[in-house]
Amino acid sequence: MPARERSFRIEAIILRHSDWGEADRILTLFSLEMGKLRALAKGVRKLRSRKAGHLEPFTRASLQLARARDLPIITQAETLDAHMPLREELLMPTYAALVVELLDRFTYEEGENRGLYRLLANTLSRLSAGHNPDLVLQFYELRLLDLVGFRPHLFHCANCGREILAQNQFFSAERGGVLCPDCGRGIPGVRPVSVNALKYMRHFQRSNYSEASKALITTAVYREIENLLQDYVTYHLERNLNTPSFLRWARSACQVQNSD
Questions:
Q1: Which residues lie closer than 8 Å to 51 by C-beta, 6 or more apart?
Q2: How far apart are CA 207 and CA 91, in angstroms?
Q3: Quick one: which of 85, 105, 206, 257 is 20 to 30 A from 178 by CA?
Q4: Rounded distance between C-alpha atoms, residue 260 and residue 255, angstroms
Q5: What are 132-156's pLDDT values in tens digits?
C-alpha cells in the first residue's frame, strides 16, 4: 500500500465513545469528509495521554488516522472547537446529547454527507454560544429530517393533499405530517396541533436559521412542538430515544434550583 494511503486526515465531531480493553476507547465520529465512522484511540484513558482532552463528546477536532485491519487508529488529534459551555452545567450538555443522539440514530456508516456535518457543527456552536436551546433544537430537528429523507408534510394535508389553512389541525406521524380537520378527526393515534405550533414548525422548515431565530415563541408552544416531533421521530426510528426523558428531568431540576 502506498505511504499516502496508510493515513488520512479528517475534520470530525466526536459523537460518543466506549471503553475498550484496559486503556483504549472506540470513538464514533461524524466527519466532514467521510460521514460517520468509528475509530480506535489507543491509550487515551491513561493519565498522561495527550490526545484525551481532544477526544471528548461534542468536540470538533482535526484528526490524523492510520488505516488498520479493523478500525482506523487515531494517531494525532487537535481541538478546533471544544464547545466548553456544553460541559459546564446540567441543561446544555443534555440538549447537546439529544442533538448527537438524533444524528447518530438516523445515520449509518455510509459515506460523506457535508450537509449533515455542517448542520451538526452549527447546532453545537449555537448551543455553546447561548442561543435559545429549544429554538436551536427544533430548527435542527426539522432540518435533520429534511436531510435524512423524512421531511414532514406541513403545508398540505398528508392524506388528501389540500392546502393547510391557518386553523387548528391534526398531526399523524404514520401518515407523514399534518392532516386537515376533515381527514384527521376521529382517526386513532392522530394528535391535535394548534395553529401557533404549526405556524412555527412551517417557519422553521422554510427559513434559514437567522430568520427562524427571530420568532417569539411561548414555552407552551415549544413543548407542543417538542412532543409532536418526538412522536414523529420515534415512529420513524421504531424506537424511543434515550435523551428526551432525561432532558425533561434536567429542566425540572434546573427550575427547582433556580427557585431556591
A1: 41, 43, 44, 74, 76, 77
A2: 27
A3: 105
A4: 9
A5: 999 999 999 999 999 999 999 999 9
Cell of 192: 391535535
In the chain, helix, strand, coil percent, each to 5? Answer: 45, 20, 35
Question: The C-alpha cell of 72 is what?
Answer: 482506523
Measured distance CA(117)–CA(103) in Å, rounded: 10
CA–CA distance from 208 to each of 1, 86, 156, 184, 214 (Å)? Answer: 45, 24, 21, 30, 11
Cell triple for residue 175? 401518515
Pairing of strands 60-66, 73-81: antiparallel
Distance CA 58, CA 125 (A): 10
200-230 pLDDT per residue, tens: 999 999 999 999 999 999 999 999 999 999 9
